[in-house]
């Protein structure tokens, strides 16, 4: 669906949730890609009465172009790193640069885990429908790293869902997930943010408020918005 525009992430999340609910995924657990994916994922978790967890992923920016992803790293017992070899070659990022960028990313992931989740244990995906949610896929680097990490946990089904997806990113990620759902798939010349009226950046307080709006894992279904 091209041309779709959303008022904000919550509105996009409600529409994404409606489409996911139609597909009847058994025993779901929702994994948000913060920060931007969290307001979308909260709506999905509420609609599906599913627990929500975070997949802490950090993009690795190219030399001199921090918004251009050469890859991404995701938290875990063995952190998963996924690199885009084509962009690595184009930007001249060598092994030393990648190692330094990865170390900085893991430091920030550790800070975020402590600030946002404290000592909360991750929710395992094993044997469940794992639904990874972001606010949009431009290169797909962070989503790919998250999918790789969750696949190692052997979910029954691995789903990637986002309101907005660049066509190339969606096509490549269909090889990584069992199912990819995009409400708007196609050209995004102004980036993911250009598909939203309100695309403000979230801070730590926003993340913690959104997490607090949901019940603790195992305490029952999420309340309606």
TrEMBL record:
InterPro entries: PRTase-like, PRTase_dom
Organism in which the protein naturally occurs: Falsiroseomonas bella
Any GO molecular function: glycosyltransferase activity
Cross-referenced Pfam families: Pribosyltran
Gene3D superfamilies: 3.40.50.2020, PRTase-like
Name used for this protein in its record: Phosphoribosyltransferase
CDD domains, per database record: PRTases_typeI (cd06223)
Keywords: Glycosyltransferase, Transferase
Keyword Transferase assigned: yes
Chain ranges of the Phosphoribosyltransferase domain: 16-181
């Amino acid at each position: 669906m091209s041309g779709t525009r959303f008022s904000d992430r919550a509105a996009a999340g409600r529409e994404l949730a409606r489409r996911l609910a139609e597909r009847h995924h058994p025993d779901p657990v929702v994994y948000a890609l913060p920060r931007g994916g969290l307001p979308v994922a909260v709506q999905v978790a509420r609609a599906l009465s599913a627990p929500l967890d975070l997949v802490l992923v950090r993009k690795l920016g190219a030399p001199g172009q921090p918004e251009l992803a050469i890859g991404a790293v995701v938290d875990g017992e063995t952190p998963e790193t996924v690199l885009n070899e084509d962009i690595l070659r184009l930007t001249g990022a060598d092994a030393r640069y990648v190692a330094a960028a990865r170390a900085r990313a893991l430091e920030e992931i550790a800070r975020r885990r402590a600030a946002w989740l404290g000592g909360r244990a991750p929710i395992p995906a094993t044997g469940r429908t794992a639904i990874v949610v972001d606010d949009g896929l431009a290169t797909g680097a962070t989503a790919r790293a998250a999918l790789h990490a969750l696949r190692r946990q052997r979910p029954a089904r691995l789903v990637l869902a986002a309101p907005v997806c660049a066509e190339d990113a969606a096509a490549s990620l269909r090889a990584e997930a069992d199912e990819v759902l995009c409400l708007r798939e196609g050209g995004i010349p102004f980036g993911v943010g250009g598909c939203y009226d309100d695309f403000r950046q979230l801070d730590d307080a926003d993340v913690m408020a959104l997490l607090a709006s949901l019940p603790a894992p195992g305490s029952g279904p999420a309340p309606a918005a």
